[in-house]
Amino acid sequence: METLIVHPENKAQLNAVKQVLKAMKISFEKKEKPYNPEFVEKILQGDKDFKEGNFTKVDLDNLWK
Prior knowledge:
Blueprint (H helix, E strand, L loop, with lengths): L10 H13 L13 H15 L14
Pfam family, one: DUF2683
């Protein structure tokens, strides 16, 4: 048999796929790939810093200087 990987775009699609699989008695497994918590914290900190004005704007002419 082959394995299918499904990429639903929203929760409604996900629920529909799960219901169809259950109705057809097709086994499936759920795997989540959470981001590394340290990476998430850095991204959130960067967003916070940007919103607070803590960033440096670099002019394109000076980008490689």
